[in-house]
Amino acid sequence: MKSFEPEHIDRKSLYTNLEARIDYLHRFLDFNEHDIEALAFGSKFVQDIIPAVVHIVYQKLLQFDITARAFETRDTRSEEPIKNGIDVDSAIVQERKMFLNAYLKKMCSDQSQMEFWEYLDQVGAMHVGLHKQRPLRIEYIHINATLCVIQHVLTEAILSHNALPMSRRTAMVVAISKVIWIQNDLFAKWCVRDGEEFNAEGETTQPAPSMSHISPPKGTTSEGQQAGTCPFSGMTQAMQGLSTGPPAH
Protein backbone atom coordinates (compact mmCIF):
# COMPACT_ATOMS: atom_id res chain seq x y z
CA MET A 1 0.00 0.00 0.00
CA LYS A 2 1.34 3.40 -0.97
CA SER A 3 2.13 5.52 2.05
CA PHE A 4 0.54 8.95 2.41
CA GLU A 5 2.94 11.88 2.31
CA PRO A 6 1.47 14.96 4.00
CA GLU A 7 2.38 18.32 2.55
CA HIS A 8 5.12 20.09 4.46
CA ILE A 9 4.27 23.46 6.00
CA ASP A 10 7.12 25.57 7.31
CA ARG A 11 6.04 26.53 10.83
CA LYS A 12 8.31 29.55 11.02
CA SER A 13 6.81 31.06 7.87
CA LEU A 14 3.34 30.99 9.44
CA TYR A 15 4.55 33.45 12.07
CA THR A 16 6.97 35.56 10.05
CA ASN A 17 5.36 35.86 6.62
CA LEU A 18 1.76 37.01 6.27
CA GLU A 19 1.37 35.75 2.72
CA ALA A 20 2.53 32.28 3.74
CA ARG A 21 0.04 32.29 6.62
CA ILE A 22 -2.82 33.35 4.34
CA ASP A 23 -1.85 30.79 1.72
CA TYR A 24 -1.92 28.03 4.35
CA LEU A 25 -5.31 29.14 5.69
CA HIS A 26 -6.75 29.34 2.18
CA ARG A 27 -5.67 25.81 1.39
CA PHE A 28 -6.67 24.39 4.78
CA LEU A 29 -10.15 25.93 4.48
CA ASP A 30 -10.38 25.23 0.74
CA PHE A 31 -10.94 28.92 0.08
CA ASN A 32 -10.88 29.09 -3.71
CA GLU A 33 -12.29 30.73 -6.83
CA HIS A 34 -15.74 29.32 -6.09
CA ASP A 35 -15.81 31.20 -2.79
CA ILE A 36 -14.63 34.38 -4.49
CA GLU A 37 -17.35 34.01 -7.11
CA ALA A 38 -19.98 33.53 -4.40
CA LEU A 39 -18.74 36.60 -2.54
CA ALA A 40 -18.67 38.66 -5.74
CA PHE A 41 -22.24 37.62 -6.55
CA GLY A 42 -23.45 38.43 -3.04
CA SER A 43 -21.46 41.63 -2.57
CA LYS A 44 -24.26 44.09 -3.28
CA PHE A 45 -26.72 42.02 -1.26
CA VAL A 46 -24.46 42.07 1.79
CA GLN A 47 -23.76 45.78 1.38
CA ASP A 48 -27.49 46.46 1.45
CA ILE A 49 -27.79 45.05 4.98
CA ILE A 50 -24.57 46.49 6.40
CA PRO A 51 -26.38 49.33 8.25
CA ALA A 52 -28.57 46.76 10.00
CA VAL A 53 -25.58 44.59 10.90
CA VAL A 54 -23.76 47.61 12.34
CA HIS A 55 -26.83 48.59 14.37
CA ILE A 56 -27.16 45.12 15.89
CA VAL A 57 -23.44 44.82 16.67
CA TYR A 58 -23.37 48.11 18.55
CA GLN A 59 -26.53 47.26 20.45
CA LYS A 60 -24.68 44.19 21.64
CA LEU A 61 -21.47 46.06 22.52
CA LEU A 62 -23.45 48.58 24.58
CA GLN A 63 -25.24 45.80 26.44
CA PHE A 64 -22.24 45.11 28.70
CA ASP A 65 -20.20 47.61 30.69
CA ILE A 66 -16.87 45.97 29.84
CA THR A 67 -17.36 46.65 26.13
CA ALA A 68 -19.41 49.84 26.50
CA ARG A 69 -16.80 51.69 28.54
CA ALA A 70 -14.16 50.90 25.92
CA PHE A 71 -15.78 53.59 23.79
CA GLU A 72 -14.44 56.10 26.33
CA THR A 73 -11.31 54.35 27.63
CA ARG A 74 -10.34 52.63 24.35
CA ASP A 75 -9.21 49.68 26.47
CA THR A 76 -11.32 46.75 27.71
CA ARG A 77 -8.78 46.16 30.49
CA SER A 78 -9.80 49.45 32.10
CA GLU A 79 -12.00 49.34 35.19
CA GLU A 80 -12.92 53.02 34.97
CA PRO A 81 -16.65 53.69 35.20
CA ILE A 82 -18.44 55.25 32.26
CA LYS A 83 -18.25 59.02 32.77
CA ASN A 84 -20.79 60.08 30.19
CA GLY A 85 -23.97 58.34 29.18
CA ILE A 86 -23.37 56.25 26.08
CA ASP A 87 -26.01 54.98 23.69
CA VAL A 88 -26.22 54.11 20.00
CA ASP A 89 -26.70 57.79 19.14
CA SER A 90 -23.66 59.06 21.06
CA ALA A 91 -21.06 60.80 18.91
CA ILE A 92 -18.33 58.41 20.02
CA VAL A 93 -20.46 55.41 19.05
CA GLN A 94 -21.38 56.98 15.72
CA GLU A 95 -17.67 57.36 14.97
CA ARG A 96 -17.06 53.67 15.62
CA LYS A 97 -20.13 52.77 13.59
CA MET A 98 -18.59 54.55 10.62
CA PHE A 99 -15.47 52.42 10.99
CA LEU A 100 -17.43 49.15 11.15
CA ASN A 101 -19.51 50.23 8.17
CA ALA A 102 -16.35 50.89 6.13
CA TYR A 103 -14.80 47.64 7.36
CA LEU A 104 -17.79 45.53 6.28
CA LYS A 105 -17.79 47.21 2.88
CA LYS A 106 -14.10 46.36 2.56
CA MET A 107 -15.00 42.75 3.36
CA CYS A 108 -16.99 42.80 0.11
CA SER A 109 -13.98 43.79 -2.01
CA ASP A 110 -11.62 41.60 -4.06
CA GLN A 111 -10.48 38.71 -1.85
CA SER A 112 -8.14 37.42 -4.58
CA GLN A 113 -5.72 40.27 -3.85
CA MET A 114 -3.17 40.10 -1.04
CA GLU A 115 -4.01 43.72 -0.28
CA PHE A 116 -7.39 42.55 1.05
CA TRP A 117 -5.79 40.18 3.57
CA GLU A 118 -3.17 42.76 4.53
CA TYR A 119 -6.03 45.10 5.41
CA LEU A 120 -7.61 42.45 7.66
CA ASP A 121 -4.25 41.95 9.35
CA GLN A 122 -3.91 45.70 9.92
CA VAL A 123 -7.34 45.73 11.56
CA GLY A 124 -6.06 43.07 13.94
CA ALA A 125 -2.95 45.09 14.74
CA MET A 126 -5.01 48.22 15.36
CA HIS A 127 -7.06 46.49 18.06
CA VAL A 128 -3.98 45.64 20.12
CA GLY A 129 -2.76 49.22 20.22
CA LEU A 130 -0.57 49.31 17.11
CA HIS A 131 -0.65 51.76 14.20
CA LYS A 132 -2.68 54.35 16.12
CA GLN A 133 -1.80 57.67 17.73
CA ARG A 134 -4.60 56.96 20.19
CA PRO A 135 -4.06 53.28 20.99
CA LEU A 136 -7.10 51.00 20.96
CA ARG A 137 -6.77 47.86 23.08
CA ILE A 138 -9.62 45.37 22.81
CA GLU A 139 -9.07 41.97 24.38
CA TYR A 140 -9.51 38.94 22.16
CA ILE A 141 -12.54 37.49 23.95
CA HIS A 142 -14.63 40.51 22.90
CA ILE A 143 -13.29 40.49 19.34
CA ASN A 144 -14.07 36.81 18.96
CA ALA A 145 -17.61 37.28 20.29
CA THR A 146 -18.23 40.28 18.03
CA LEU A 147 -17.14 38.37 14.94
CA CYS A 148 -19.56 35.62 15.96
CA VAL A 149 -22.41 38.14 16.13
CA ILE A 150 -21.51 39.50 12.69
CA GLN A 151 -21.42 36.00 11.24
CA HIS A 152 -24.72 35.07 12.89
CA VAL A 153 -26.56 38.14 11.57
CA LEU A 154 -25.19 37.76 8.04
CA THR A 155 -25.95 34.03 7.97
CA GLU A 156 -29.52 34.50 9.18
CA ALA A 157 -30.15 37.32 6.72
CA ILE A 158 -28.81 35.40 3.73
CA LEU A 159 -30.47 32.07 4.51
CA SER A 160 -33.84 33.66 5.21
CA HIS A 161 -34.15 35.16 1.73
CA ASN A 162 -36.00 32.86 -0.60
CA ALA A 163 -35.46 35.14 -3.60
CA LEU A 164 -32.09 33.47 -4.10
CA PRO A 165 -31.70 29.77 -4.89
CA MET A 166 -30.59 27.75 -1.87
CA SER A 167 -27.38 26.83 -3.69
CA ARG A 168 -26.50 30.53 -3.96
CA ARG A 169 -27.37 31.23 -0.34
CA THR A 170 -25.34 28.27 0.87
CA ALA A 171 -22.32 29.25 -1.21
CA MET A 172 -22.47 32.81 0.13
CA VAL A 173 -22.72 31.66 3.75
CA VAL A 174 -19.84 29.20 3.36
CA ALA A 175 -17.59 31.80 1.70
CA ILE A 176 -18.39 34.55 4.20
CA SER A 177 -17.75 32.13 7.06
CA LYS A 178 -14.29 31.34 5.71
CA VAL A 179 -13.40 35.03 5.41
CA ILE A 180 -14.63 35.74 8.95
CA TRP A 181 -12.65 32.83 10.37
CA ILE A 182 -9.51 33.99 8.59
CA GLN A 183 -10.13 37.45 10.04
CA ASN A 184 -10.52 35.78 13.42
CA ASP A 185 -7.11 34.20 12.98
CA LEU A 186 -5.61 37.56 12.02
CA PHE A 187 -6.94 38.97 15.28
CA ALA A 188 -5.68 35.98 17.26
CA LYS A 189 -2.29 36.34 15.57
CA TRP A 190 -1.77 39.59 17.47
CA CYS A 191 -3.16 38.28 20.77
CA VAL A 192 -1.86 34.75 21.34
CA ARG A 193 1.74 33.81 22.09
CA ASP A 194 2.11 30.99 19.55
CA GLY A 195 5.29 31.39 17.51
CA GLU A 196 6.66 34.15 19.72
CA GLU A 197 10.14 32.64 19.47
CA PHE A 198 10.26 33.98 15.91
CA ASN A 199 9.28 37.55 16.79
CA ALA A 200 12.81 38.85 17.12
CA GLU A 201 13.86 37.39 13.79
CA GLY A 202 11.61 39.55 11.62
CA GLU A 203 10.23 38.65 8.22
CA THR A 204 11.58 35.61 6.43
CA THR A 205 13.67 36.32 3.36
CA GLN A 206 12.34 33.28 1.55
CA PRO A 207 9.56 33.94 -0.99
CA ALA A 208 6.11 33.03 0.22
CA PRO A 209 4.06 30.39 -1.60
CA SER A 210 2.24 31.71 -4.63
CA MET A 211 -1.43 32.58 -4.26
CA SER A 212 -1.97 32.04 -7.98
CA HIS A 213 -4.39 29.20 -7.22
CA ILE A 214 -6.94 31.90 -6.41
CA SER A 215 -8.03 34.28 -9.11
CA PRO A 216 -11.15 36.36 -9.75
CA PRO A 217 -13.70 34.32 -11.72
CA LYS A 218 -14.35 35.51 -15.23
CA GLY A 219 -17.16 37.96 -15.57
CA THR A 220 -17.22 39.00 -11.92
CA THR A 221 -15.95 42.03 -10.07
CA SER A 222 -15.79 43.14 -6.48
CA GLU A 223 -19.20 44.67 -7.03
CA GLY A 224 -20.70 41.26 -7.78
CA GLN A 225 -22.57 39.94 -10.77
CA GLN A 226 -25.51 41.71 -12.29
CA ALA A 227 -28.88 40.48 -11.14
CA GLY A 228 -32.44 41.62 -11.51
CA THR A 229 -33.57 42.86 -8.11
CA CYS A 230 -31.58 42.78 -4.93
CA PRO A 231 -33.38 40.29 -2.65
CA PHE A 232 -32.28 42.27 0.41
CA SER A 233 -33.77 45.57 -0.79
CA GLY A 234 -35.77 47.16 1.99
CA MET A 235 -34.43 44.67 4.49
CA THR A 236 -32.28 47.16 6.37
CA GLN A 237 -35.21 49.00 7.91
CA ALA A 238 -36.92 45.76 8.88
CA MET A 239 -33.80 44.50 10.63
CA GLN A 240 -33.38 47.63 12.74
CA GLY A 241 -35.71 46.15 15.32
CA LEU A 242 -33.82 42.90 15.56
CA SER A 243 -31.65 42.20 18.55
CA THR A 244 -29.23 39.43 19.39
CA GLY A 245 -30.16 39.60 23.05
CA PRO A 246 -32.04 41.58 25.68
CA PRO A 247 -31.76 45.36 25.40
CA ALA A 248 -29.13 47.12 27.44
CA HIS A 249 -30.24 48.86 30.62
From TrEMBL:
<feature type="region of interest" description="Disordered">
    <location>
        <begin position="200"/>
        <end position="249"/>
    </location>
</feature>
<dbReference type="GO" id="GO:0019825">
    <property type="term" value="F:oxygen binding"/>
</dbReference>
<dbReference type="Pfam" id="PF11563">
    <property type="entry name" value="Protoglobin"/>
</dbReference>
<dbReference type="GO" id="GO:0020037">
    <property type="term" value="F:heme binding"/>
</dbReference>
<feature type="compositionally biased region" description="Polar residues">
    <location>
        <begin position="202"/>
        <end position="243"/>
    </location>
</feature>
<dbReference type="InterPro" id="IPR044398">
    <property type="entry name" value="Globin-sensor_dom"/>
</dbReference>
<feature type="domain" description="Globin-sensor">
    <location>
        <begin position="19"/>
        <end position="197"/>
    </location>
</feature>
<protein>
    <recommendedName>
        <fullName>Globin-sensor domain-containing protein</fullName>
    </recommendedName>
</protein>
<dbReference type="InterPro" id="IPR012292">
    <property type="entry name" value="Globin/Proto"/>
</dbReference>
